[in-house]
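User: I'm putting together notes for a lab meeting next week and I want to include a structural view of one of the chains we've been expressing. I don't have a solved structure, so I'd like a prediction I can at least talk through. The sequence is below, exactly as it appears in our construct file.
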Amino acid sequence: MAKNESRQYRYPKKIRIWTIVGSSVMALLGVVCITAFILITSVLGKISFTDDDHFDPNADVNIQEEENEGDTGEKVDESEYDNTLAVMEIPLRGDGKGIRNILLVGVDSRKGDFSGLSDTNIIVSINDNTKTIKMISLLRDTWVSIPGRDKDGDGKNDIGKLNTAYAYGRHTLQHKMIAQNFRLDIDDYVGVNFKVLPILIDAMGGLDISVTAKEMTQIPANGCFVSINDPDNSGFSPLTGAAGVHHLNGFQAMEYARIRKIDSDFKRTERQRNVLTLLFEKMKTMSSTQLVNMVYKAVSHVDTNMSTDELLDMAGNALTYASYTLENGYHIPENGTFKYTSLEGKGSGLLLTDPKKTVEDLHKYIYG
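Assistant: Thanks for the context. Below is the predicted structure for the 368-residue chain, given as structure tokens.
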């Protein structure tokens, strides 16, 4: 079924029971339903529903990548390998049998739009059978094959960092890249830009996050706001006090999630998953009014290809999902499954040493 086609949903039994209730109760219910409908549609109206059908994977895109930290590794000639050849024999897996996968992308955009590198790439896998929600980080510096991109004209897909696919072709190319390299067909996509995380966290009153002494040097002090458009961080002063749990506002929590220079991208994605876990847990304690206020403030900074019916369906399952167990420790590459390599003109990255096993392990983790 095409993503833009409306889906028919059968009314649940609880809704049908209301038809036997007295007219006075029905009148009250009608007012509540009308109010809820107006609220929901006004919120949905602020979401950006993406249309990425038209893109050129070979287009020149002005992207500014971060400097690589740590080991640059051995130099590799890109023409010598294609790291997807070993995985093409693995069947493509998608949703089904109580499992739904959603790709969450955090876009590194200073403009507040949805253009740029994918700073965060997390697969959110909802398993109704095991009552779990699993978060899998795809590290941005992983070397992957970019489908359809052939700037050097050798007839092969170019090798690039995982975070560049979104910059070249937004979700359409991101979807193709994940399908080709990791054999996952993930239809549903939700993208957020830099502005949304501080808005969400401030709307819920901040987060209590345990930070180390090194991490504190990268987080702005209370009252010290450093613009994301200020590359020199002029006026920056670090968080003060002792290492441990600190109550961080939205901007501070975002800067915590983006820390990289003190360690590695592995630790960075761990911090990202930690923030999402804390968000999830705190949302469980919020009232419906607080949740609606939070969502209403943030949705204008959300991009998705999910239909209105799909979003409403997920909203209806929110209370169910709140009872699920959240798992957030998995990442690609896994420890011991990569080596540092550098490609001429593209910097250094992480090369999977056994792509087939990596994909097989990933599928086992998601599907059991």
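A couple of points you could mention at the meeting. Residues 1-42, 66-70 have pLDDT under 50 and may be disordered. The CA atoms of residues 73 and 178 lie 24 Å apart.

User: Perfect, that's what I needed.
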